[in-house]
Amino acid sequence: MRKLALSAMIAAVIATGVYAQEIQDRKENQQDRIANGVADGQLTAGETANLEHKEANLNKEVRNDREANGGNLTNNEKAQINRQQNRLSNQIYNDKHNAATAHYGNNEIGARRENQQDRIAQGIKSGQLTAGETAKLEGQESRINREVRNDRAADGGKLTNQQKAQVNRQLNRESARIYNKKHNAAKASK
Q1: What is the pTM assigned to this prediction?
Q2: Structural domain boundaries of the chain?
C-alpha cells in the first residue's frame, strides 16, 4: 500500500513538473513568434504592445495562481491557462497575417525606428526584455509612430526640420529606455 501511495505521489509531482515545463515552452515559443513578427515588420508597435500586455497579464496570473496554491496549479487553472494561451496564439497569428505592417520609410528617422524595433525584437528573443517591459517600449514606439504619421499628414507628407529634431529627441530617449530595460536586473524567465 505504501508503494502504491508513493508511486501515485511521484507521478503527480512528475505530471506537475511536465505541465509547468509545457507552459514555459509555450510562453517561449509565443515570445519567439512575437520577436520574429517585430523583426520582419509583420507586427506593428501597437500590435506588439497589445500582445505583450496580454502576455504579461497571463504571466502574472500564473504566478499568482501558483503562489495561492503552494507552487502548483489546479486542474481548472491549467485548463484556463491553456485556453488563454490558445487565444493569445491565435491573436499572434492573426496580427502577423493582417494587412497592418510596420513601414518606417527610406530616411534617417525611418532607419532609426527600424533599428530600435530590431533591438526590441532581439531583447524579446534573448529574454533580456520581459513581456511587461516590451509592452511599455512598444507603446512608446507606437506613440512616436503615430506622431510622425500625423505630422506628415499635416505637412503634405514631409516633416519639418523642427519636427525631425523633436522626433530625434524622442528616439534618443526611447533608445536609452531600450538599453536600460535590456540591461536591468529584471530578466524574462526563459
Answers
A1: 0.65
A2: 2-182
